[in-house]
Design a protein that fits this description.
Chain lengths: 524, 360
C-alpha cells in the first residue's frame, strides 16, 4: 500500500490532472438539499474511499456520477473537459460504471448475456452469441473470476454474482468504477476475493470509488479518503495522513448539542432478556444478518442500538418479533418467563410491539382508514368474538388521536392522505392500543419534521415513565446519544460495544459501528 | 360520543396547513352544489352510482316501446343477474385480498351437475343434496385457497388450474352428458318427475314479484356484506389486499384469512350452481363457462380495485345492477348477440376508466 501511496503522491505532485473532477455539486430532493457544493476528484489508479454516516450524501453523489440523476447543479470534468451526465448510458460512454449495492443482474440469463446486456455485439441486428461467449470468457479470465460464462446467474453463489457485476463494468472498459458497499452481504472468504480483484483493477490503472462502513476495509484498501457529512464535504486526505481518530471526528463533526427532552428514568425490573439470538440471511451462503446477539432491557429503560447500514439491528427486531420464524434461533425471556415467539401474533400476545422502519412498506395500510390502522394490531381484544364494534373502535381511535395530537380531518380518512408525521403517529398509535410492555422502535423519527420529532421524544419519556421498556434503533447519532439510557452498538450482525449513557460519545459509538471491538468504553 | 371525539381531533387542524385541510373548505350556493356533486363523483361509490344512472338512462331512451317501464322487466333483470350476483359476492372478498378467482364458472358447473345427479338420479332428499353441493363447492374453493395461501401460488394460476380441473370433474361425473329427468335404466329410458325442489327454487313469491333465486342472492349478499363490513375477518381481507406485509406484522393471520376467502367463494359457487340447475331444470357440465368474467366485471365496474385493499359489497351491488340492466336493455331492444358482446366490452372499459383512482 505504501508504494502505491508514494506513487500517488508523486502523481499528484507532478501536477498530473485528475481523471474526473466534480465541482460544486448540489442536489435537492424536493425542498431538501442533500448535497451542498461538494467537490470530489478522482485520479487514475487510486482506490478512493468515500466515507460518512448514514444520510451524509455518499450514495447521492455517486448516483450523480453514474448518471442516475440528471438534475444536479455543478460541473463534472473528465480529463479537463466538462461532461454532462444525464443517463447511466452516458456515464458508461465516458467510462464510468456503478456496481450496484442491490445486484442489477438478470438471474434467468447466462453470465455472458448479462455481461453484454444493453450493449450487445451485433451483426445486421442479430446478436452474435458466440462472440459474446468468447469475449465474456476473456473478461472473466482477465479478472480471475472462476465461473462458466454459459451458466445462469441464478445458479451461481451471490458472491460470484457480485464479482460478475464488477466484470460487467470491466467489460465496458470502465476507467472509473463505483462500488457502493460491495462487501455488505459477503462472508469473510468472499471479501478476500473481492479485495484481490480491487487490487488488480488498481494495477490496471483503473480508479475505484469505494463506499464502505468498515474501518478494516478503509485500512486495507484506501489510497485517499473523502468524508461527507450532512451533504457537505468535510475534507479529502491521503489515507496515511488521516488516522482513525481524525477520520471518526470528521464523520461525526462537533456540533451535536441538540436539545432532547430525556428525563432521568425510573429503571426497575428486567423486562426482556435475549441470549444468542441469530437471524440467518435468506440464502445460507451469505453471512448471518444477526450473529449470536445477547442483550437485556429493563422496565422504564431506553436501550439504544447503534449501527450503520447493514448492522443487523432491524433484523434483530424482526427476529425478536417473530417475523422471520424460520431463520431465527436463540432464547428469549419476557418478564422473567422464557417464551418462544414464532409469529408476530405471539409477539403481540407477549406484550411486544414493533414499529418498523418503513411505515409505507411495512407499517401502515395506506388504503385504509385511520381507525382501521389504529385497531389493526389489537383486533383480538376489540373483536373477541369476531364481530367488530365500530363505535368502540372510533372511540379508541379518537382517544389515541388526542393523546398523540394527531392532526387528521376525520378518523375515517385514508392514512395515505395524511402527512408523514401524522402517519407515523398512526403507526405508533396502532401499537399503543395493544398496551405493549416492550416497544421495539426502528427509526421512529425517520422522515418527519422537527416538531413531530419532539412530540415523539416526549411520548417515549411518558411510556418509560409508565414502565414500558423501549429498544430504540436509530441512525441519527444525536438522537441515539440523547435518548438512550444505555447503548449497544452493532456491526455486521454482532455487538461490538456496550456503553453507559455517560461513556457514550459520538466517536466511540461510530468506532464500534465501523467494527472496532475494543474501541468502546474508554472510561472502563 | 364518537362524533364528539372526532370533532376534538379536528380542532388542531384549523391551524394546520396539511393538504387534507383544503378539502374542508365550505362553498355556498350553486358553486357549492356543483362542488358537492364533483366531490361525490371522485368517490368510488359516486362514480358507480353515476354509471348505473347512465345505464338506466339508456333504458329510458331505448325503452323498446315502453317495455323498459314494465315492472316485469325489472323483476327479470334482478332474476337474471342473481346467479352472476351470487358469484360476484364471493369474488368481491377474493378481489379485496388482491387475488382473483377464475374457477367460479367451473365450480358452479360441478355443483349444478351434482345437484341434478343427487336429486334426479340418486333420489337423495333435497336438503341433503343441498348440503352436499354447498360442501363440494366449499371444498373446491378451499383447494385453490390452500394453493394460494400455503403453497404461495399466484391466485391467477391456482384458480386457473382449478377452473380447468373442475370443468373436467363436472364432465367426469356426468360422463359428458347433461343430467336431466330422462334416466336410462338398462336399455330403457324413463322420464322421472322433476324433483319439487327445482320448482321451488325457480318459483316466485310475493304475488310473483320476487324470484326465489333473487331472494337467495340477497341473502348471500347480506352474508358477504356483514362479514366484510362488520367482522374481524373482513378487516383482515382489506388489510391483506392493502399491504400484506404490514398486515402480517400487525398480527393478522394472513394465511387463514386468505384461505377462508377462497373457500367462501367456492361456497357461493355451490349456491349458484344449485340455482343454475333449478333454472335450467337439468345439470349441464358445460354450464357457467365465462361466468367468471361476468362476475369479475361486476365487481370491477362497481369500483372494487383489482389491486386489492379497496372496495365493498355496496359497490359490487351497483356493479351487479349496472351489468344486469345493460344486458336487459340490450336484449329487450333485440340487439343481436354479436352486438351485445361488443357493446358490453366497450362499456366495461369505459366504466373502469372512469373508476381509475387519480394519481397525485
Amino acid at each position: 500500500m505504501s508504494e502505491c501511496l508514494s506513487w500517488h503522491a508523486s502523481c499528484i505532485l507532478s501536477g498530473m490532472p485528475p481523471l474526473v473532477s466534480m465541482k460544486g455539486i448540489t442536489k435537492h430532493f424536493g425542498p431538501v438539499r442533500v448535497l451542498d457544493h461538494v467537490d470530489f476528484e478522482i485520479y487514475p489508479g487510486e482506490v478512493h474511499i468515500l466515507a460518512g454516516e448514514n444520510g451524509a450524501g455518499k450514495s447521492t453523489l455517486m448516483k450523480i456520477l453514474a448518471g442516475a440523476y440528471a438534475d444536479y447543479q455543478g460541473r463534472i470534468e473528465m480529463a479537463g473537459r466538462e461532461i454532462r451526465l444525464s443517463s447511466p448510458l452516458d456515464a458508461n460512454r465516458h467510462g464510468i460504471a456503478a456496481i450496484h449495492q442491490e445486484l442489477s443482474l438478470i438471474p434467468s440469463m447466462t453470465v455472458a448475456d448479462n455481461l453484454f446486456l444493453g450493449h450487445p455485439m451485433t451483426s445486421q441486428g442479430f446478436v452474435r452469441a458466440r462472440a459474446h461467449r468468447r469475449s465474456a470468457e476473456d473478461v472473466l479470465q482477465r479478472t480471475g473470476i472462476n465461473a462458466d460464462v454459459s451458466s445462469l446467474v441464478e445458479d451461481l453463489p451471490i458472491s460470484v454474482q457480485q464479482l460478475i457485476e464488477i466484470a460487467k463494468a470491466i467489460r465496458l472498459e470502465a476507467r472509473v468504477l463505483i462500488m457502493d458497499e460491495p462487501s455488505s452481504a459477503l462472508n469473510a472468504h468472499d471479501v478476500e476475493t473481492l479485495f484481490a480483484l480491487v487490487r488488480q483493477l488498481k494495477a490496471e490503472n483503473r480508479s475505484i470509488i469505494y463506499i464502505t462502513h468498515r474501518l478494516e476495509e478503509i485500512h486495507r484498501l484506501a489510497d485517499r479518503i473523502t468524508v461527507l457529512r450532512d451533504g457537505r464535504l468535510v475534507g479529502t486526505s491521503e489515507a496515511a495522513e488521516l488516522p482513525e481518530k481524525k477520520l471518526i471526528q470528521w464523520m461525526v463533526g462537533r456540533e451535536i448539542e441538540e436539545q432532547f427532552p430525556r428525563h432521568t428514568p425510573q429503571i426497575s425490573t428486567e423486562a426482556l432478556r435475549v441470549e444468542n439470538l441469530s437471524v440467518r440471511a435468506a440464502s445460507r451462503a451469505l453471512r448471518p444478518l444477526v450473529n449470536r446477539v445477547s442483550l437485556h432491557a429493563s422496565r422504564g429503560e431506553i436501550l439504544g442500538i447503534g449501527g450503520l447500514q447493514g448492522s443487523g439491528a432491524s433484523e434483530l427486531f424482526l427476529g425478536l418479533f417473530g417475523a422471520l420464524p424460520k431463520r431465527t434461533e436463540g432464547r428469549m425471556t419476557v418478564d422473567g418467563k422464557q417464551v418462544r415467539i414464532r409469529s408476530p401474533r405471539e409477539a403481540i400476545a407477549n406484550g411486544i410491539a414493533l414499529l418498523t422502519n418503513d411505515r409505507k412498506a411495512t407499517g401502515l395500510i395506506a388504503s385504509m382508514s385511520v381507525t382501521a390502522n389504529m385497531c389493526a394490531a389489537n383486533m383480538r381484544n376489540l373483536a373477541p368474538h369476531g364481530w367488530r364494534h365500530p363505535r368502540q373502535e372510533s372511540r379508541i381511535t379518537a382517544e389515541m388521536g388526542q393523546a398523540l395530537q394527531l392532526r387528521a380531518a376525520s378518523v375515517d380518512m385514508e392514512v395515505g392522505d395524511l402527512s408523514g408525521g401524522n402517519q407515523q403517529k398512526v403507526a405508533i398509535g396502532k401499537w399503543l392500543t395493544t398496551n405493549p410492555r416492550i416497544m421495539l422502535l426502528d427509526e421512529p423519527t425517520r422522515g418527519i419534521d422537527v416538531g413531530a420529532k419532539h412530540e415523539i421524544y416526549q411520548l417515549m419519556n411518558e411510556w418509560t415513565a409508565h414502565g414500558i421498556s423501549i429498544l430504540l434503533v436509530t441512525s441519527e447519532m444525536p438522537e441515539l446519544l440523547a435518548m438512550s439510557d444505555r447503548i449497544i452498538v452493532m456491526h455486521r450482525g454482532t455487538i461490538t460495544a456496550e456503553l453507559s449513557r455517560k461513556e457514550a460519545t459520538a466517536e466511540n459509538v461510530l468506532e464500534a459501528a465501523m467494527g472496532r471491538t475494543n474501541g468502546g468504553g474508554n472510561g472502563r | 360520543m364518537g362524533a364528539g371525539m372526532v370533532g376534538e381531533i379536528r380542532e388542531p387542524l384549523r391551524r394546520d396547513t396539511d393538504a387534507e385541510s383544503r378539502t374542508q373548505v365550505k362553498a355556498s350556493g350553486m358553486a357549492g352544489v356543483l362542488q358537492t356533486v364533483g366531490r361525490a363523483l371522485t368517490s368510488s361509490a359516486g362514480r358507480a352510482c353515476l354509471e348505473l344512472l347512465i345505464v338506466l338512462l339508456l333504458g329510458v331512451i331505448f325503452n323498446a316501446d315502453g317495455a323498459f317501464f314494465k315492472e316485469g322487466t325489472h323483476r327479470d333483470t334482478l332474476r337474471q343477474a342473481s346467479v352472476y350476483g351470487i358469484l360476484a359476492c364471493g369474488m368481491t372478498l377474493v378481489i379485496i385480498t388482491g387475488g382473483i378467482d377464475l374457477s367460479v364458472g367451473s365450480v358452479l358447473a360441478v355443483s349444478s351437475v351434482s345437484f341434478a345427479l343427487l336429486t334426479m338420479h340418486m333420489d337423495w332428499p333435497w336438503w341433503l343434496a343441498i348440503i352436499a353441493c354447498l360442501g363440494l363447492g366449499a371444498v373446491l374453493g378451499s383447494a385453490s385457497g390452500a394453493l394460494v395461501s400455503n403453497a404461495k401460488l399466484q391466485p391467477f394460476i391456482a384458480t386457473l388450474a382449478l377452473m380447468t380441473f373442475a370443468r373436467g370433474f363436472a364432465k367426469y361425473i356426468t360422463g359428458g352428458q347433461k343430467i336431466s329427468t330422462y334416466v336410462t335404466q338398462g336399455d330403457k329410458v324413463i322420464i322421472k318427475e322433476l324433483p319439487a325442489i327445482f320448482k321451488v327454487i325457480d318459483s316466485r313469491i310475493l304475488g310473483g314479484d320476487v324470484a326465489i333465486v333473487s331472494v337467495i342472492f340477497i341473502v348471500c349478499f347480506l352474508i358477504a356484506w356483514v362479514f366484510l363490513a362488520r367482522h374481524k375477518w373482513g378487516r383482515e381481507l382489506y388489510s391483506i389486499g392493502g399491504n400484506e406485509e404490514a398486515a402480517r406484522l400487525s398480527g393478522v393471520p394472513v394465511r387463514m384469512a386468505k384461505f377462508l376467502a377462497y373457500t367462501f367463494s367456492g361456497l357461493m359457487c355451490g349456491v349458484a350452481g344449485i340455482c343454475q340447475a333449478a333454472q335450467e331444470t337439468q345439470g349441464d357440465p358445460e354450464t357457467g363457462s365465462g361466468y367468471e368474467l361476468t362476475a369479475i366485471a361486476m365487481v370491477v365496474i362497481g369500483g372494487t380495485s383489482l389491486a386489492g385493499g379497496r372496495g365493498s359489497m355496496g359497490l359490487t351491488l351497483l356493479g351487479i345492477l349496472t351489468i344486469g340492466y345493460l344486458q336487459k336493455i340490450l336484449s329487450i331492444n333485440a340487439v343481436p348477440e354479436a352486438g351485445r358482446l361488443m357493446i358490453t366490452g366497450i362499456i366495461i372499459v369505459l366504466a373502469v376508466l372512469t373508476q381509475k383512482r387519480r394519481t397525485k
